[in-house]
Every structure is written in structure tokens, then in C-alpha cells.
Amino acid sequence: MEDHEIINLYWQRDEAAIKETAYKYGRFCHSIATNILTVPQDAEECVSDTYHKAWNTIPPEKPRAFRAWLGRIVRNLSINRWHYNKAQKRYAGVEILLSELSDCIPDTETTEEIVETQILSGYISDWLDTLPDMERLLFIRRYWNGEELKQLASISGTTPNKLAGQMFRLRKSLSSYLTAKGVAI
Amino acid sequence: MEREQKLFDAITEIRDDLIERAQDLKINSAHIKWGSWSIVAACAVLVVCLGGIMFWQNLFPFSGSAGSGGSGHADDSSVFMSYAGPVFPLTLAEADDKISASRNIAYDFSLADEDSLRVWGAQVRDSYVLSNHLEQERAISILYPFAGSFNELAEQMPIITVDGEIVSPTLHPGGYSGGFTGVYGANDPDGSSNIRQLDSWEGYKALLESGSYQAGAFAAYPVLDQQVTVYSFTDFEAPLDEFDAATQAITFTINPEKTTILTYGFNGGNYGEDGWRRLSYFVPNETRRESNEKYLVVIGDDIGEYTLQGYKNGATEKGNELDDVSVTITRTKRVMSEVLDSIIKNFLSMYGGDQGLAVSEELFLGAVSEFMLKYGALSDAVRDRYKFGMLEDMIIETKNLDRVFYLEFPVTIPAGGDASIIASLHKQPSYDFHGAGSDNVGIQGYDMVSRLGSNLDFETVAAEVTSIENIEIVRQNFGFDLSSGITEVNLDPAIEHYYLEIRMLN
């Protein structure tokens, strides 16, 4: 079923919308949640909550890119769950990924104006536009989808160790880009 | 962590077109590695979700046991979230009071190569001089224990030299060194759905002190010679163009007291207390990265009548049925060990990684058999984790869970003379997970035990650190003082446990 047909089901308040969403994007949502949380049961709950949120949000919303829209929801729900789990000292999860992101923090004086998340997102999108296709893809699959280096190494035909070095350079590149733009976070 | 979180949130909000384009690259199936199994697992969880059943409990804990982290032992060393185990002392297969020993352990913190960004792990050179106090030469059998797993054995296996010559020891794997725990911690004391690997040297002490664990490592593996009934599934058909998650389910009823079902290649199931079973799998297509081999292995009374039904996806429920899903089922009587052997071969070819096993298939079959009998579906006390009989779980966890291996090799020491034995190994560190909020993030821990599991009396024990330009020592009881140039120390053999915790310098 096409995305707009699924969204129309939501607008018609037809519960088949959730079934069709799960059928088409369930695996996609599960992979993002699992990458962030690592525990299948928690990931499953976040995906279920994603469908619930979609049901409550459409209408009035009418997402233009349904997959990315769903992915953002599951990503936000998963990181919130991770914070909860972390507070409960339950397990490790996305912290390695967050730790890697510390390399991207710009070397900017904190007296600079701290940008809003939405503006920062625009800068990151602009920086991604400057990258060759494969590097852009690898960065997004690592830091948006949360995929493991091992798996990404198989995509790019390299070894995890070499890819780790490449990702490190990408993170530093983003840091330099944000620094040059005078972005403080 | 606030700024990392803000970056995470900002990345969440990058433009739609960037996200969409990044999703559409297909992974080259020629590069299937271990990671692919986690994808299969994620699919299976979806089936569970749609089917309204939950049975995949904490599938991925084996990348490292999670201890409490940050808290300490009585000797001020840390308890790490991921514990690599100590370096053990060498021992003799049979105690011999005419043999004395001295030991020197050296930790080399070199970067792995010029492209390395950080120190991770230490190259350990664990050296011994054994002295024969008799007036005739002495032929002895020596054991060198080390902590590890089948999964990382190739990287963890020590290289042994005797008087400068590399020898080829015999490998004896001990059983799984850890235990199991419930899902709800203190509220679930009898549960066994989750893995609980050892997280301290004291855990290894409790494991090895009696000698029974070592004895078990040298015992012959069990042979699963019972006759079983095997249902093999082939010739899969389904309208996959329209339903790429088309699902085939088989339904039957057993007497759980008389029948045990093992599955391979199945993605989900429904289980009734009265013995009703509906087991299902996604009909294989060209893009799904999982094995096309699917088996039900029946131990005990056969399943009798069964029915087959296709479904549009993993939701095996009324109203979701799909016609034109078919399969050929072949029923045979086979010996369990033969069936398991062929399934393990298939599993490793799909999910075993590029390097394969560092041990023979026969040895690994024995290890899986032992694991199944001790903890798995063939055990008298089946752990909750394995009660649904998924062979994939038992195989992968035999491969990944930590154990103690023993290298056995012969040495002849001349009358009144010495033998030099060196074990060289790359020792992974113990560590806390990044972002876990622990003060120990970024610290690498290295434990060494001085006499645990050994029947030798060490007259002297010394230690050394080399290639220290990239590290600083955070905690230790060795007595090194890098600022004063003290990199070689003599140790007290009476102290059971030495620890060294380092951090990489920026």
C-alpha cells in the first residue's frame, strides 16, 4: 500500500491504518528502536507506542515523508525510554553512540549564542549535503538509524576498524563545520 | 551528556530527503556477518509483536556482562560493567612438589598500528621459569588457562613458547562460566531468562577453586545419540510479490510431558498450556537474510496430525489468512547429533562471520551438546531462556558466552635444570559502557590472579609495563610509579589478586 493510502486510512479513522503501518514499516521501526535500546521487549513497546502516537497525531498531521516521520517518533520514544532505563540502571544502550557524538561538538566559546535544536539540525543537514554519497549514507545510518559499525562495514566493503577511523574523521569534520559556522551547543 | 543529547535530537530532525535516501541502499548479501543475526532477531520480535506473544527474552546480552560498574572491591579495584576476566597463572596437570616456578607478567600498551586512534587492550607476555629439583629429567603436562569465548577465540588464544619454540597445545574448553537471572531482578529470584556473566575475579575464584570446573573441561563431551523425528521444510511457495512477509504456520498438539520440540529457522510461535502449538516462519524470499533451512526436531512422542496455514504476514491470526502458501514437509528418523551437526554447519555458514570457528566442528558440536544438556532444551532444568526450543539461541550462546579454556602441552625439564615457558596474548580490557554515568568510563581494567587454579608455588612473581607513553595509571596494587620511572616491580605471591586500571592520555 502506498504511504498516502495508509495516511488516508488514519484520516478515515480506520484501524487498518496501524496494521498497514506495521506491515510496511514495522521492521524499519523495530531496527531503530532495537539499535537504541538493545532490549527487544523495550524496543517492541516503543514501536507499539509509535503506532499509537501515529493514530493520535494523524489527523491533523499529514506527513509528507511517512517513513522518516515514523522513524523520528520511534527514535524520540526510544531515547526517552533509554533515559528512563539509564536512571533505573537497567542496562547499556545508545550510550556508545552518544559518546561518539561528543566528537562532533564544535570547539566554540560558550559565550557564543547557543543555537536551538532546529537550527542545529539545519546546519547538520547542510553539512551532510557537502559529503560524498557514501559518507553521507554511512553517517546517517550510524547516527540516525543507529546501525552498528560491523553492519555498515559490510555495506561499504571495508573492515569495522577502518570504518571506525572513517567515522571518526566524519565526526571531526562535522565539529569543524559547526565551529566554522560559530555554532555553540 | 546534554550536548550529545542535543546533537542526537538535531540529527533526529535532519531533512526528510536525507533520511529517505539513506534508507534505500540495499545491503550486499555477500557480506553477511554476525550482525545479520540481530536483523533476523528483530524480524522475529515483530512476529512476536503481531502474534501477541512474547518469548524473546533479552536476546543480546552476550556482548559483555553488565555489572554494577563504578563500585569497588575490598581491595579498591573497580567492578566493571564489562569484565574481561583475569590473567590466570600456569598450572601443572598433576601437582609436583619437585617443580618450582617463578613468574613475570608484562603488559605492553602499544597502539595496535600507526592508524590506531587509541590504546585498547594490552599485549600480555606471561613468562615462567619452571625448575626441576630432581636428578633425572622430568616430563610433565602443563596447563595454561585463559578466559574467553568461542566467538573471539582466534584473537584471545595465547601463543605458547617452550624454550623459545612455539608449541601446538591441545585446547580444552570449560563450560559456560556464568549463570542466569530473572527479568525482574530481586523480584524474580528464580527466573533464568537473562544471562548473567561473571563480573569479578571473585566470580572466577568461586568457579575454579574446587577444581571441578577444570575437571569438567577435560571430560569427554556428551554425544546426543537419541533417535529423533525430524520434519524438514522445503519447496517454499507464496505470492511474495504481493506479500513479501508471507508466513507459513504449522499447528499441532503435543503432550509436553512426553514430547520436546526444537526449532530451527522458525520466527515465531504460539504456545498453549495444553500442548497446543502454532509455529511459523516467513516464507523465504531472495532478500531476507536468514537461512532457508527449516526444521522441527521432535524428541519423544511424535507430533501426530498437523495442519498448515499461510498468512499475509507474521500475524498468524484469523482474518489474516493467505492462500497459495505451500511447503513440502519431509519426515525422517535421525540421530540427534547428526541433525544438530548439520544445523550448526548451516547456522555458522549464515551467521558465523568471515573467520569461522577457531576450533573443529566436532569440538563445537560437543560444546553445543553439552550446553543443551546443561541449560538448554535437553536439560533436566531448562532455563527459561531456552524453553521454547529455538536451536539458534543455544548455538549462538554456546559460541558467545564466556568460559575458561585450557591449553595443554608437554614439557620436559632436564635433571636439575629449567624450562622457559611464555604465553603471549592480547588481553581485552574490562570497562564501563560509554555514557553510562559511571566515573570509570574511559578506564581500562586488567586483572591478574597469582595462584587461583594453580598447583604451583611461585617463588617469585614480577610484573612490568611497557609502551606507556599513551597511558596513565588510575588505580593499581602492583606498585608501578610511571612518573618516577618505576615500570618493573616484584609482587607478593601471597596476594591473590593484582589489578591495574589505566586511562589513555589525550
Give an account of the 3D structure:
- The complex is a heterodimer of chains A (185) and B (506).
- Chain A has helices at residues 3-11, 16-37, 40-57, 66-87, 95-101, 117-129, 133-143, 149-156, 160-180.
- Chain A is mainly alpha-helical and 185 residues long.
- In chain A, α2 crosses α4.
- Chain A starts with a helix and ends in a 5-residue tail after the last helix.
- The relative contact order of chain A is 0.11.
- The mean pLDDT of chain A is 84.
- With 506 residues, chain B is an alpha+beta fold.
- Chain B contains nine helices and 24 strands.
- Chain B has helices at residues 2-12, 16-23, 35-51, 153-156, 201-208, 212-218, 336-351, 361-374, 391-400, and strands at 91-92, 99-108, 122-132, 138-148, 159-162, 165-166, 170-176, 179-181, 194-196, 227-237, 247-253, 259-264, 268-271, 276-282, 294-300, 307-311, 326-335, 403-413, 418-427, 443-449, 458-466, 471-476, 488-491, 497-504.
- The longest helix of chain B has 17 residues, at 35-51.
- Chain B is globular.
- The interface between A and B is large, with 68 and 62 residues.
In summary, what is this structure?
Chain A has 185 residues and is mainly alpha-helical.
Measured as a percent range, the helix fraction of chain B is 10-25%
Assembly type of the chains comes to: heterodimer
Q: Count of helices of chain A?
A: 9
Largest interface, counted by CB within 8 Å of the partner chain's CB:
A-B, 68 and 62 residues
For the largest sheet of chain B, list the strands in their spatial order. 6-5-19-3-2-21-23
Return the average pLDDT of chain B rounded to an integer.
85
Radius of gyration of chain B: 26 Å
Q: How many E-type strands of chain B?
A: 24
- Outline the low-pLDDT stretches of chain B: 26-70
The rough form of chain A would be described as globular
Strand content of chain B: 25-35%
Structural class of chain B: alpha+beta
Number of strands of chain A: 0
The backbone outline of chain B, from C-alpha atoms, is globular
- Determine the number of helices of chain B (DSSP H or I, runs of at least 4 residues): 9
Q: Taking all residues together, what is the mean pLDDT of chain A?
A: 84
Which spans of chain A have pLDDT < 50 for at least 5 consecutive residues? none
The description of the largest β-sheet of chain B is: 7 strands, mixed
The largest pleated sheet of chain A is described as: none
